[in-house]
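1st attempt posting a full record on here, be nice pls
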Amino acid sequence: MHRIVRVAPNSLPRFEARRGAVVLEFIIAMPVLFTAFLAIFEFGFLALVVENGTHAVNEGAREGAKLWGSSVSVDNNLAGNYDPTANDDIADQIALAMDTILNIFNLEVRQNGVSDNPGRANVLVVIERGVTTARRGDNTLTCNRTGPAPGAGEIVVTLCFPIVDQTAPSTGLGNPVPNWLAPFGFNLTAYRFEMSARSELE
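the predicted structure (as tokens):
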């Protein structure tokens, strides 16, 4: 036995029109959704990098407080040498302890053009204790301590780096944070991470 199915005369054209409307809605909504996804990922990266930098500067201050009372020299580097790879003084040891943490996000404590990895953005570390100041990392960066100068029995470690590496501002290669939203008018190249941590000497 055959069953006869009757189709309303206007049902097929209405279905075709609806399918066209769905495609049009998708075309209109796609740029907004794509931008929203990029923003979620970019700000997620930013939050992770800020957390990583905060952890690194805190560890640097802790390492400095632990090492400062030792017999190791504070800063053996000659003037203008900000590279920590000699690892023969307290400033080098603080910088390399921070470097281990920062490597996760393509950051490194290296002097610009000396022993650095071109695929990683360089940072600057400033170590202060009383009148003694040691610098390690990229000497082309400016770095200002946040908060007061170190008091008696304190060490202050300051970490600075650009949020987006200026050498590749739109590709995201070697950057701590990709600059994916730059084509949409939200550019991170003017921003930088700058944080200080202080610790009492042990």
